[in-house]
From TrEMBL:
Record's keyword terms, sorted: Signal
Protein name: CehA/McbA family metallohydrolase
Source taxonomy: Bacteria, Bacillati, Actinomycetota, Actinomycetes, Micromonosporales
Range of residues in the leader sequence: 1-26
Signal in keyword set: yes
Organism (species): Actinoplanes hulinensis
Length: 398
């Protein structure tokens, strides 16, 4: 849809948006779906987990750009656009200056904060300010929940950036991992930042980054990052550089399981890695391993682990065949310990033997076996199909 036609819809959709987000309305109990028509939001999955209590599902897009760096869009329209697209949590993360490419100025950083504050509606819609630290070889890192920003002038390398994030108390994530050739010094581990490095993008725009760089001889970014010792959750983002923030269907999103839809609620969920990556709007994924939700630790060295997975996308996907792939550490690509056939709209339970001697992490990948992965890995790998979602990892701690 063109910017003009979609903006015309936005201008007349205020009442519908208020209905969709008002506590107690029917739409408030379901997740939003990215459509290019008027924002009717009743076709996504219910927000309540079928297997866990105490949290609610909110869909987030934590990586977006505007005219304040290398985007095309007016930042004053971004938060409204993301809310109209069915998102519950949205962030602007314009680039810090990259060499000769102008990025955020101090006045623009201040303006981003003002726009986020104006759009933020605690309990209904969370608007965040962040920035993207940008190095042409090392990679790009998003940073949220800081009162200031840094660029290559102040933080020219990974060590200086990690020190800055640690001192400012923010949280951060590795962006489009594998795209820049040095890959954060090949994800060299920094123990001091483990708790604040909360995310690894698995879906960016429409791309699945599981095997990004494989065709040119690189290892899987997921495998390399987690094997290095990082305890990142897994995210999906739009990384919008145009004017269609939140649109169209098929771009990355992050499903956040939070106690409340506020800045503090989202921050707590991100610190707990209580979220999943998806590139399908309106999707609900909740999962436990031995009773522990995604993002948590499993305190044992070896044994059979019972997984319970809640997977739904509302009426449109009921009965859709999907695969649950159990990813474990490999040398260059994740090993697949099991592939479980399931379908959308149901709770699936299965048991997999895990051994800490084989590696400390386990991830569930939800895939559509009828479509191919546009960025495949090793020949014959089970994950050479179309990725729908990734849970955040669990970690074996004994």
């Amino acid at each position: 849809m063109t910017e003009l036609s979609r903006r015309s819809l936005l201008a007349g959709s205020g009442a519908l948006l208020m209905l969709a987000s008002s506590p107690g309305s029917a739409e408030a109990t379901t997740t939003g779906v990215a459509t290019s028509a008027a924002p009717t939001r009743a076709t996504g999955a219910a927000r309540a987990s079928a297997i866990s209590q105490g949290t609610t599902l909110f869909h987030a897009d934590l990586h977006n750009h505007t005219l304040m760096s290398d985007g095309d869009g007016d930042p004053a329209k971004a938060y409204e656009s993301m809310r109209s697209a069915g998102l519950d949590v949205a962030a602007l993360t314009d680039h810090a200056t990259l060499l000769s490419i102008n990025g955020l100025s101090q006045s623009e950083w201040t303006r981003t904060g003002q726009l986020a504050d104006a759009a933020d509606n605690p309990g209904i819609y969370t608007a965040l300010r962040g920035f993207e630290w940008t190095h042409p070889l090392l990679g790009h890192v998003n940073v949220w929940y800081t009162g200031a920003f840094t660029d290559l002038g102040g933080s020219p390398g990974m060590a200086r950036l990690y020190d800055w994030i640690s001192r400012t108390g923010g949280i951060s994530g590795f962006n489009h991992p594998g795209r820049e050739i040095l890959r954060f010094n090949d994800f060299a581990y920094n123990a001091a930042l483990r708790e604040q490095m909360v995310g690894l993008e698995m879906f960016n725009r429409g791309d699945d980054y599981l095997f990004d760089g494989w065709s040119s001889g690189q290892s899987s970014p997921l495998n390399t990052c987690l094997n290095a010792g990082w305890r990142t959750g897994l995210t999906g983002v739009t990384d919008e550089h145009g004017t269609e923030w939140g649109y169209p269907e098929g771009k990355g999103r992050t499903g956040v399981w939070a106690v409340e839809n506020t800045r503090n609620g989202v921050l707590a969920a991100m610190r707990e890695r209580r979220f999943f990556a998806t590139r399908v709007s309106g999707l609900r994924v909740d999962a436990t391993a031995a009773g522990v939700r995604m993002g948590g630790s499993l305190p044992f060295a070896k044994g059979d682990v019972r997984f319970v997975v809640d997977l739904d996308r509302g009426p449109e996907w009921v009965g859709k065949p999907l695969h649950l792939q159990v990813l474990r550490p490999g040398s260059r690509a994740p090993e697949v310990a099991d592939v479980v056939e399931t379908e959308a709209g149901r709770v699936t339970e299965f048991t997999v033997p895990l051994d800490a001697a084989d590696g400390s992490w386990v991830v569930l990948r939800i895939a559509d076996p009828s479509q191919a992965n546009a960025s495949p890995g090793p020949s014959g790998h089970p994950c050479n199909d179309w990725g729908v979602a990734y849970t955040s990892p669990w970690w074996l701690t004994m």
